[in-house]
Specification:
Blueprint lengths: L8 H11 L3 H14 L8 H26 L2 H16 L5 H8 L3 H14 L2 E4 L2 E4 L4 H6 L7
Antiparallel strand pairs: 1-2
Helix pairs in contact: 1-2, 1-3, 2-3, 4-5, 5-6
Amino acid sequence: MHAGRPLDLDAAERLALEAGGYPYAIQVYGHYAWRASDGAPRITLEAAAVACARAGRALAQGLYAGRWSAASPTQRTYLATVARLAVDGTPATGRAIADRLERTTRQLSSVRSDLLKQGTLTVDGDELRFTIPGMAEWVLDQPSPNR
């Protein structure tokens, strides 16, 4: 039995964009695209759209929620600040985060370090970014001590 099911180019592009290059997200989006196209000879853009909605919910309930629940209140405040800066279009540098939180970068260095070690954030130049695509938007929907 042949297990392969090719993707239409527009479906592949949509899934790749949504997964943002994050390996686990690629697997989740691919899984839901495969399931949404059940019985079809190809994975179409329509199946990819269904998959994106389902995969987004699965990531939110599992991966994002898991990272959030494992974070301390201080880490959650830090993550929410990174997310707000990203949405505002301001680079989330250590200085910008400290300024928003009215703290020094030194006071926040262990929080930053822990979030980097956990893999929740990554550094790109001097800017902090969420490792997992879509998590910034999800974080902004969560209750935060600084709201």
